[in-house]
Specification:
Strand order of the largest sheet of chain A: 1-2-4-5-6-3
CATH architecture of chain A: Roll
Shape of chain A: globular
CATH superfamily of chain A: Hotdog Thioesterase
Order of helices and strands of chain A: HHEEHEEEE
Strand content of chain A: 35-45%
Number of domains of chain A: 1
CATH topology of chain A: Thiol Ester Dehydrase, Chain A
Oligomer: homotetramer
Helix content of chain A: 10-25%
Largest interface: A-B, 38 and 38 residues
Distance between the termini of chain A: 23 Å
CATH class of chain A: Alpha Beta
Largest sheet of chain A: 6 strands, antiparallel
Radius of gyration of chain A: 15 Å
Chain lengths: 147, 147, 147, 147
């Protein structure tokens, strides 16, 4: 078996992201993929809001979860799938601004279990504020779905 | 000041839910509101999926977070607002099925801090399976937004 | 291979507990072991306190973590080991009282990953109050330590 | 009212730490106090172990919780008390080594709610390995205990 190139890994992540119906529904875009670090951007709009007009914690979570999941997936074999085991997220400040930027970073890669750091920033012009922070546990499973 | 009736509390929760743009976008409905317990239903459809066709953890989280938030809000004064401080969710099994049912239940009500239990079931015909479980911390803040 | 009897499983849990130096140091006792549910008792005393005289969150966590870990271990094969992947605990009220009672209950058993509910009660005479609640993820690994 | 000096804040933290019976029982020491960042050291010994001889997750948690709590407390008024609302900790690797070093760092200070990052390193000679990472929510309450 030949090892994947970084370009192949990035392509594999982009293909999988394109299959997530929720990301398209929310209007989220995959803005950066590096080994162990993935960034997703979500424009603010009324369709993703909570009752006070800020971005809903559920939308913030969705992009944070996907960013962390794909960050872990960049370090897993092509023949595996990645599943979120659990995550925890603190909402630090209202998710106001022009758009959100979620960043998932692998804290500990593992053959079975990986752990990621999750950060979400609200961006408005040249202002960038941390509005959510968390930690996520993921599992790598063989492509046949067994675990 | 006259105490709110249960009907007024339920109306207050329904009004707030109706203002969450994200719930409408996802297609989520508020199916039951009781004091200390709220249920939200989300039909499965490709628009809320992850890459394997199951409901995305972000959509699961969104309805779990709203269910817990409104469960806590039923026990808070009408002049307050509720904010999620943080939550943790374990994804126990693939969110397959006809629809999801998220239930938020207040575990510890408080003047400032409340804690809720979060459960999400996947329902298919008469089958009902726990697919996510978690815990959420909320804060009650005066309506003027100070905290 | 012959399946373990319930008595053998309980003996295996008791043997492992007896090897946890920390439980002895804290003065914690294993008070009940059932399949999927374990209870640990910790008498209150100044040696396990925080700065206000209540039981320290660290001691509360220690017995909650061990209760959950052993609850999961009762459902794992004898040839495996159990490790805590992560846990989350809400401290709901001051851990006052004569002693604490931690209960770990398996929410989702799994071949690799198990999830437990954690509860800690403060007991004073016939009063029993929930003072901490949480959720824990565990992994079963082959006895040779690989994962 | 005169603002506290940094020395007064550090003294206030050291006084409170000295009142935590559990830290003395475990053999934990407060090794560094800065504004928004606190470090605690725990020597490895059989009395703080789990069943495989590594430091018990409960002991790891105890020093992580205290480090985060005191980090938040350095940024709170002298007339307040600090309580842990909840925390989540991932155990990333066996807590082996000569001693552990827990570091609590304030991620978001707040008038009511503060959030800290928790890190625990295992140290052996000049090797230093991250063995646990987590996130903690704290509340500042007036000294009279009301909340």
């Amino acid at each position: 078996m030949t090892a994947e190139t970084t370009d192949e890994i990035i392509a594999r992540v982009r293909d999988s992201f394109a299959q997530q119906g929720l990301m398209a529904l929310l209007g989220a875009e995959l803005t950066d993929v590096e080994l162990g670090r993935v960034q997703i951007r979500l424009p603010s709009r009324p369709e993703v809001s909570q009752q006070h007009g800020y971005v809903h914690a559920g939308a913030t979570s969705a992009i944070a979860d996907s960013a962390g999941g794909y960050a872990a997936y960049t370090l897993m074999p092509a023949t595996s799938e990645v599943l979120t085991v659990e995550y925890k997220l603190n909402l630090l400040a209202p998710a106001a601004g022009d758009h959100l930027e979620a960043i998932g970073t692998v804290l500990r890669p593992g053959r079975t279990i990986s752990v990621c750091q999750l950060e979400v920033f609200a961006v408005e012009g040249d202002q960038r504020k941390l509005v959510a922070a968390g930690q996520q546990t993921l599992i790598s499973i063989p492509d046949d779905g067994s675990r």
